[in-house]
Amino acid sequence: EAGLSMQNTMIMSLIVFAGSSQFIAVGLFPAGITPVSIIITTFIVNLRHALMSASLSPIVKTWNKTEIAAFAFEITDETFAVHSLRYNEAENINNNRLKIEMLLINFIAQCSWVLGSWLGCSMGQLISNVKVYGLDFALPAMFIALIIMQVNNLLQVVLLIFAGIISTSLLISGIDQWNVILATIVCATIGACVEKWIKK
User: Fold this and answer.
1) Alpha-carbon distance 88 to 56, whole Å?
2) d(CA 85, CA 62)
3) pLDDT tens digits for range 130-170
4) What is the pTM of this model?
């Protein structure tokens, strides 16, 4: 509907491995928004990747620059969640084995995304009504499952609920581009401070 060809769609999935960025960009193309504006918008939406990268930086500090670049390029919300769970077990895992697993997980995730893009372009028109299949809830359901897998104490439960309240309140008040990022920053900061205070 946005006028992207199969070739452009596939190239986009290869070089812009960020679902939210792609969905936003596809929505902005038909409106005639300039490429610079699209890049800035998608950059802001994906600022959370900086937080994810900072969280995973202790794991990759011994890697070489090429490995870090390849790893960072393929970080998504989903792969971050998987890596965070593996990081908790990292002390019991050989560092070289952990590196191979993490790079492989990222690679498989992107291959799946590119394959999904191809399937969507090739056969998407065969599905006339997406709502019947409940596909619009698939993404939120996946994120809920990923969050539940990582929760292991009461502080995290409280912070998750608080983050949801902040994000929803900001969204209702009209801050629809920054609500998730601001809620994440506030709750991550509170969580870090509380954990530091508990350790003392």
Assistant:
1) 11
2) 19
3) 677 776 677 778 778 877 877 878 888 899 899 999 999 99
4) 0.69
